[in-house]
Amino acid sequence: MTDIAPTSSLRRPSPSAVLELLKPITWFPPVWAFGCGIVSSGQSPAGRWPTILAGVVLAGPLVCATSQAVNDWYDRHVDAINEPHRPIPSGRIPGRWGFNIAVIWTMLSVALASQLGSWVCGATVFGLVLAWAYSAPPLRLKQNGWVGNGAVGLCYEGLPWLTAAAIMTNGAPDWRITGVALLYSLGAHGIMTLNDFKSIEGDRRMGIFSLPVHLGAHRAALLACLTMALAQAIVVGLLCTWQRPIHAAVVLGLLIGQFALMRRLLQNPREHAPWYNGTGVSLYVLGMLVTAFALGGLTA
C-alpha cells in the first residue's frame, strides 16, 4: 500500500501541526478520570499539588497524546479517506515524523511515570502497551470493535482513575475504587462505539470491523446505550449497598436523563452520535464525579 505521507523526512512539522496531531481536546476524558481518582481516594490534596500536576500531565498531554499520535500514524490511510485534512494525510506532518513523535512521547511518558512510584509506572506502561497494540500491527486491536473499544475505555477512564488514587494513597487503590473505575471503563466501551460512527465508510473500505461496521448503525448504537446504562446501573446498586443513597439517587437521575437523550440518538444514530457525545456523555462523566465523591467518603 502506498504511503500517504510525503516521503521526505527532512522537512520538520510546525508546532501547530504537532499540537493538532496530539489532539488536546481528547485529553479531557483521562484528565477528568484522573480528577475522579483524586476525589475518590478521600485524601486531601494539600501538599501534593506538584505530584498531582505531574499526574495530570502524564494522563493527558503525555499518555493520551501518545495514543493519538500512534493512532494517526497507523490510521493515515483510513484518514486519507475519512478525514484527509488531518496532519499526516495532509502532509503537514511529513515523512516518518508522525511515528517519531509517537516514540518520543512514549519515552517521555515512561520517564515521568517512573518518578511517581512503581504502581503508577506499571499502570502507565500497561496503558502505553494497550495504546500501541490498539493501532499498530500485528495486534491492531481496533480491527475488532469488541476488543479495541474495551482497550480504549480502560485507557481513557480506568487507568487514569486508578493512577490518581495510587498517587494519593502511595499504594494500590481501595478495592471499591478499582471496581467502580473498571465499571466506568466498561461503560466507556459504549462511548467508543459511538465515536466510531464518524469513520464508518473508511473503516469498511479498509477492513476495520468497528461495531458500527460489523453490526450496522442501529444495532451498534443500541449496544452502546445498553453498555453505558448497565455500567451505571451497577454503580447505583453498589452505592446503595455502601449506604450512599443520595449519591446513588443523583447518578440514577443522570442515567434517566441519558435515557431521554438515547431515544433521539436511536432515531438516527449516524447523524446524532456527535450530538449525543456532547450531551449524554456529559451526564455520564458527571455521574463519575458524583460516584467519586461517594467513594471519597468511604475511603477517607
TrEMBL record:
The keyword DNA damage does not apply. Gene3D superfamilies: UbiA prenyltransferase. It is a multi-pass membrane protein. The chain crosses the membrane at residues 116-134, 146-169, 216-239, 245-262, 274-295. InterPro entries: Chl_synth, Prenyltransferase_related, UbiA_prenyltransferase, UbiA_sf. The keyword Membrane applies. GO terms for molecular function: transferase activity, transferring alkyl or aryl (other than methyl) groups. It is found in: Membrane. Keywords: Cell membrane, Chlorophyll biosynthesis, Membrane, Transmembrane, Transmembrane helix. One of its GO terms (cellular component) is membrane. GO terms for biological process: chlorophyll biosynthetic process. This is Chlorophyll synthase ChlG. It comes from Bradyrhizobium guangzhouense. The lineage of its organism: Bacteria, Pseudomonadati, Pseudomonadota, Alphaproteobacteria, Hyphomicrobiales.
